[in-house]
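[Meeting: bench + compute handoff]

Bench side (C.D.) handed over the final construct sequence. Compute side (W.E.) agreed to return the predicted structure before the next meeting so the bench team could plan truncations. Sequence as handed over:
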Amino acid sequence: MEAVETQGEAGAAAPPPPSPSRVGGGGDAVTMSSGLCKPLPSSGPRSIRDVSHPLSAEELLSPEPEPEPEPEPEPEPAAGGGDKDQMLPNGTLVETSSPASSSSLLNRLQLDDELDGETRDLFVTVDDPKKHVSAMETFITYRVSTKTTRNEFDLPEYTVRRRYQDFDWLRTKLEESQPTHLIPPLPEKFVVKGVVDRFSEDFVETRRKALDKFLKRIADHPVLSFNDHFNVFLTVKDLNPYKKQGLAFITKMGESVKYVTGGYKLRSRPVEFAAMGDYLDMFSQKLGTIDRIAQRIVKEQAEYLVELREYGPIYSSWSAIEEQLNKPLIGVSNCIGSCCITLEDLSEDMSDDFLPVLREYVLYIESMKNVLRKRDQVQAEYEAKLETTAYKKEEKQGTPTNVEKCQDRVECFNADLKADWDRWQSNKRQDFRQLLMGMADKNIQYYEKCLAAWESVIPLLQEKLEVKSEGHS
């Protein structure tokens, strides 16, 4: 009795640390589409554990030949190594000299990329939006282009067209088949602040950028990028047969995650996962405040721009009746016109670059909270099975095995979540570093251009004063 309870507390409160396979090129990444923890082409020779992955859903996926493992170096990041910024496949700058945890996936990946360019073997872009009008509906499709050297792809390049609902199907399938991982968010389908026409050029371009980032984040992930559904999405011309097939199944993981034993309530989250939840709550609050203020700034800039555009022509019309002040007044009018153009550019940058990143991370927070909830459900099931085993100690056949499998599920969830958390934090730091530096540069350029415009008026005013002084003398 006591031994079983001790085992339960140790399993629930102190899950093992993430395997090296979850945090970079130095270990093996686990693919959820197969029943075993197998090495992936961009991973090292070791697997996390030689057991069947308890969260896999292999019976739902049609069998495909396994890719041949490609050995690659397993560099250990040197202390203080990497004094220069590097570039992610999605174009994000990465400062490898910044402090990283022992399981920093991002830094390990960057070192691999520096040593062996072949580790970056999948590149995806979304572009060329086109409007389709039919008797039943009107929709936008986007061209998805893929270049790869991976063995599981039959061709080195693919080009397909996808609409928003196809991206939504992909994300749903990733959540079902990879429930232990953080799935990047999609842009919201209809709700975009300040945009009414979802077929306008601005709306379509904003969505295209978000969809492009969505696929790039998946392509950069060491596990999600090998998902069979992702392969289908990138390569198959017509997704409809796969969508219809998917409606007939409920994934094994979907059933297990939704299952919570007899309304059992989780005792408590382990400290590290409780800290994650607290951080997400705080981060969500801060982002919400920044988003509201940024929205108000954009609105006030738009109102100011309207008034500024009315303000400039007044000086121009005034100059027509003031012969002696003609040049200075026209100069002021032109100056205000230049300021209008500069302010318009600043507002567009705020709307097109700053606000979408804030919104993406608001959605990212919801995705991470969802994964945390799933982890809690699996842990709750594990704790419930431990209690059942304690009360039915005499039934030694079957029950210990079930508890052991459930413990494996908790450990897999913990390892995957920790690795994705480290990866997300690294990406977040670099995204916001790039975002804030860009915003600072845009504001500096705005004020420099306004200053230059107003300084151009000074010589006209000085010239008029000199003429006036000569007339008095």
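W.E. noted at the follow-up: The chain is about 55% helix and 10% strand. C.D. will use this when planning the next construct.
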